[in-house]
Protein 1
Amino acid sequence: MLAWFRRMRESEPVSHDEEAGVWHVFRHADVERVLADPGTFSSDFSSFMPAQEDVDRFIKGNLLRKDPPQHRKLRTLVSKAFTPAVVARLAPRIEVIADQLLDAKAGADQLELVADLASPLPVTVIAELLGIPAEDRPMFGRWADSLVAPESQTSFIPNEDRTKAMAVVMREMNAYCLEHIRRRRAAPGQDLVSKLVAAEVDGQRLDDDEIVGFVGLLLLAGHITTTALLTNVVLCLEEFPDVAAALRADPSALPGAIEEVLRFRTPLAPSMRRTTREVQVGEHTVPAGRIVLAWLASANRDERQFTAPDTFDIRRAPNPHLSLGHGIHFCLGAPLARLEVRIAVEKMLGRWSGMAVADGVEYHDARGIVGAKKLPLHLRWA
Ligand code: HEM
């Protein structure tokens, strides 16, 4: 993939892939331009997907798939309930959850990072944020896994069969979320869903379907990507052993290291858009109504933007990577993802004097997600 990106950035930075029916964009400046112009590069793909009630309902509150002005309404409302202060207050709870998960493996000389920490940590945090009962949490992992199953990625736009299969999972998620929202309307608590139910901007509130879509988005967007990032941190530490030593010696370097892992192993490789008009990108004219894949993972290695882009440098500054997006859709969960991963890595480095990747690593085979879905580790305890 990286060799392909390098070749394409050089020779065909904007290229038409007739077989896949998409246009690829590879350079940092062009990717940024695509993401910065939602009027020309839309996030609404409903015209490409077969209509399906459950999918439509799921998408109604999914701000990732909305353009202005609906996007602004949803984002303003959910931002009110999902502020940096709300996220910062979660830190002590994230510490406790990470400790509990690692305590369960105390003294073990091996663990499987995804099942034991990287997946349950973000799922538990999001579920707590949403006020969802602990016993229901295993379902989320299952839902998330089915929606990003490899077959969903043979094409970036789901075909009829795939849409039907997704609809089955979405129906289950929609019903569950609706029930949860109704309970919260009847008896509000301190959780995010209660806040979303009450949130109001310019006299506008979110309806149940919009909240369902947002909850679904959080469960998916906040889970797989954060899990992938945590596995990517460990894979980078394995590849660059002196970095682990540097981080133990100077933990204040950890936030910079996490940004560099985000750049170096981009968890979500492309962002997808649809052209609303004919548009010039670089030297190419992209017709109206086409799918554009803006490759964040390629932009992050663009030698026009980064000095020594293939060098892993935890002190890189500035580090204008695009792994969390850019423009109006910039990742709403970025502070949470950074916080969770920082706490998890601090705990791992604090507890273990050494870790090494063991046999049996499995990488995501879904196009678009970069990270491990199984990461066995040998541990040495401090
Ligand atoms: C949007 C990446 C974690 C919630 C995005 C986008 C990217 C991204 C690239 C923009 C996509 C686009 O423009 O097409 C990531 C990565 C994460 C992460 C790499 C982890 C390392 C999270 C978490 C949450 C979250 C933890 C919430 C709990 C969202 C939401 C949006 C979004 C709601 C849509 C924002 C909008 O459309 O206005 N994320 N994300 N993400 N992310 Fe994240």
Note: The chain has a mean pLDDT of 90.
Protein 2
Amino acid sequence: NSVMIQIPGTTANCGPGFDAIGIACTVYNDFELTFHDSSRLVIEVDGEGKETIPTDEKNIAYQAVLDLLRKINHQIPGMTIKMFNRIPLSRGLGSSAAAIVAGLVAANELTGQSLSKQQLLDIATSIEGHPDNVAPAIYGGVTINVCRDGATECLRIIPPKPLLMVVAVPDFILSTKAARQVLPKQVPLQDAVFNVSRSALLTGAFCTGEYRHLSAAMDDRLHQPYRQQLVPGMPEVLRAAFDAGAFGSALSGAGPCLIAFCDQNADHIGQCMVDAFQANGITASCMVLSIDT
Ligand code: HSE
């Protein structure tokens, strides 16, 4: 009655695919769930969020465990949760999605795997509010996600050519809630058309490996123009990545991480992004990741 799993971090949106496209990345949180007879709840957190993640009933991974148990009408046992986190917290790399998915997947395994990945995805999407981080955390790869009649339809793509993701991680956090509050309720038709065409091109580039299209395919008018006020130096860092040879670059999820795609010179691109952040008064570190499959 104990299970240990690994859940990947994820980058959502990739520019134009707001709330629709997400990629699983090779950075992982370890999650161990044990059910026991006593009614005690023990939560231990190490690594990222050691000081800040709640270790009581408010813990979102624990909440996800409860959601799954209730869904399958299972009694609520005492439990111990051990989290070792490597995904940077509240930075736009899917740390909350990873916690939710970890809780759901672990609880499902401990109770006989009665729910399918599709069912886990639907529960996870309803908890998180959007599917583009939870879907790749469950399925791996690049995922195209469509919400329809209360369910999430997910197409998983494994690009045919290697792709690296260079992530510049600034030393401040940004909540998804705050980053969604700056978005307009309505957008001009031309901006919607701008994003529809680019997210189609983006999907095509992932399917074919024709990454030269990523420069155009990663432009966005639905969220990045509004969010750039929250990330000092954002246009400069995105530009620096491109000038250093990246195919394209974007805000990772709701930010504040910025992400660039390339197939070589990743360390150089990362250094240029970190330097551009520094020139704007922001200290950042860099991670080079690939697609978790
Ligand atoms: N699509 C979401 C957003 C991702 O941009 O708000 C948040 O991680």
Note: The first strand starts at residue 2 and ends at 13.
